[in-house]
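Inverse folding, one chain.
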């Protein structure tokens, strides 16, 4: 979404942060769960039919399995879940967004970006492999890349102080 906004409204940007984003063409995103967590992926696959039917228990179990694969540490995951008790997953919304993303390829737009850009990834992001962030960084002239070495998909949760420090430094110039 942030890349689409930047392509559409470059005049509205002072700085651009791209944090653990999917690829500019969603089909190019490297999802690693099945390679790193095959047993968890198998459990999710076993829930797929019930999830598709809208079974609330299956949806909750599936979301729990997904969340278990996002973090570098179990402690970070548990802290995130505790802070996110009001999080609501809407399967219909998720499916609509996912379907819409299939239509776009923003790769041709990235070399046109002129705003100072920081691309962020967690070293252990198995949801969107760091290679995706690397490719985005390489495509945007003058962009900076920040890799958080003890983070999964949410470095702003797992390495909060370092994340804030890095973003503040980026925004200061």
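Residues assigned per position:
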């Amino acid at each position: 979404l942030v890349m689409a906004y930047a392509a559409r409204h470059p005049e509205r940007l002072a700085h651009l942060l791209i944090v653990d984003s999917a690829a500019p063409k969603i089909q190019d995103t490297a999802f690693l769960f099945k390679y790193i967590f095959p047993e968890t992926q198998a459990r999710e696959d076993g829930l797929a039919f019930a999830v598709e039917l809208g079974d609330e228990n299956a949806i909750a179990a599936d979301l729990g399995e997904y969340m278990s694969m996002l973090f570098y540490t179990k402690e970070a995951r548990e802290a995130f879940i505790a802070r996110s008790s009001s999080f609501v997953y809407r399967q219909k919304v998720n499916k609509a967004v996912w379907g819409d993303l299939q239509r776009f390829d923003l790769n041709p737009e990235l070399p046109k970006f002129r705003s100072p850009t920081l691309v962020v990834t967690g070293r252990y992001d198995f949801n969107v492999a760091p290679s995706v962030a690397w490719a985005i960084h390489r495509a945007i002239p003058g962009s900076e890349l920040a890799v958080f070495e003890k983070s999964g998909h949410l470095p702003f949760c797992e390495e909060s102080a370092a994340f804030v420090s890095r973003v503040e430094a980026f925004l200061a110039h």
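The mean pLDDT is 93. Residues 38-52 form the longest helix (15 residues).
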